[in-house]
Known about the structure:
The protein is α/β, with parallel strands linked by helices. The chain folds into 2 domains: 3-113, no CATH class; 121-263, no CATH class. The protein has 10 helices and 9 strands. It has a 6-stranded mixed beta sheet with strand order 7-6-5-4-8-9. The longest helix is centred in the first third of the chain and has 15 residues, at 41-55.
Amino acid sequence: MDAEAHAADAVMIVARVKWHTSFSGRIESGLMKMMAIGLGKFAGARRYHTHAQRFGLEHIIRTVGRRVLQSGKMIGGLAILEDAHHNIARLDAVPADGMEQREEELLALAKSWMPRLPCDLDVLIVDEMGKNISGTGMDAKVVNRGPDGEYNPWPGLPSIGRIFVRDLAARSYGNAMGIGMADVTHDRLVRRIDWEPTRINAVSASRPSRVRVPAHFASDRECLQWVAATAGKVDRADVTFGWIRNTLELARLAMSPNLRAQIDGQLQVEVEREIDVPWDESQNLVSPFRVSDGGDTSEGDD
Length: 302
């Protein structure tokens, strides 16, 4: 435990209760995890992620969290739950006694609120990734990628064939953790990577695969032409595309016309309008989504 926290008369954890990007369980990210990975700081995070490769991260979170509770330092926690738009939907004061069981109940509720893409896609275009968006740059359970880049490991979620990430969010400050989940990216993103925090993050999370740089090109058009050729469709006109600003903002998305039949009639989907794909003079896409305002949408995983 952090020395200053251990020296305090009492400690109360404040954390969001949400799904984790690397595993599924009855306890994932939340109060118990922050007693291990959070209060343990860099040394603890690196050690616990290392042990997790053998025992599983949920087991580590539970056993370390229980040990911290036995220290007598913890008086409880404030659990924050967010809705599908990442607004605070509920605050729950949780006493130390019974914290583990209460967090299981809160996680089940939070999971029921999480947004997802409306259908399977051959290619997903993501305008920006970054640590301010998700601990893994992109929420792995939105893009359906496993801890080591496995394709579509999460059952019940849309299947995503290929991922094209266009840029690194400014508020990520160069940390490109999660770029390894992409299949192609733009040269501009590669130029913005600060390898010092990126490497540190990969070590603390024990996930070197998530910082592997994919194929990259000088224009969006080249990226799309290359990745579409890997989508497994003989006729390029059959390749399906989805386009989002980032994995935090799924309220508005763009879809290729050949998906219209799949999304028409879905109760939670409304077709706003049809647009032509806009390109600038450098053969880069002009996003239909608002320009990043640098707002803090921080995720805490890994």
